[in-house]
Amino acid sequence: MDIMLFHSTYGLRPAVRDAADRLRAAGHEVWTPDLFEGRTFETVEEGMAFKDEIGKDELLKRAVLAAAPYSERGLVYAGFSFGAATAPTLALGDEKARGLLLLHGTSDIAENASVDELPVQLHVAEPDPFEPDDWLTAWYLRMGRTGAEVEVYRYAGAGHLYTDPGLPDYDNEAAEATWRVALGFLDSL
């Protein structure tokens, strides 16, 4: 499977590269575009400020340009937190998309978005301050109305970015469970 994996607001940190290596070891081809052009951050607040400074339109343009050379292959779009908010925009707009793997985040969905049974898998902490329960319920229903086939996995007690061992949110048990399920999902596509 060909996977376009987008980083969080912390930037292209070692955890993203490690995740890509894990996916490669399972037989997938993975690209990890650096939407922040080399910048990484120690706090989510710093990363959010930088993201807002660049702007949503410019970041989306960078993501589209990163994916464009590979989209004919039928990509799985994936991402961590902010990257999981970026990936759906590309997947829902790419008729060749094979799947959508979201780790720690979701995004708004365009009212006119429509797909033909796109497989979608979301992994998120429970609770998650960035993904409250009422938002997740509404997101799930909207994503289903697009025609996507959605699976949601919640991890009680884990922190927001629980798969990143370099952050305080890290939860080894939840991270390993996430990767087991996500690798099975990718193998099924």
From TrEMBL:
Q: Which UniProt keywords apply?
A: Hydrolase
Q: What top-level branch of life does the organism fall under?
A: Bacteria
A molecular function GO annotation: hydrolase activity
- InterPro entries under this entry? AB_hydrolase_fold (IPR029058), Dienelactn_hydro (IPR002925), Dienelactone_hydrolase-like (IPR051049)
**Domain Dienelactone hydrolase residues, every copy:** 3-187
Q: Name one Pfam family in it.
A: DLH
Q: Which PANTHER family is this protein grouped with?
A: ALPHA_BETA-HYDROLASES SUPERFAMILY PROTEIN, CARBOXYMETHYLENEBUTENOLIDASE-RELATED
Q: What is this protein called?
A: Dienelactone hydrolase family protein
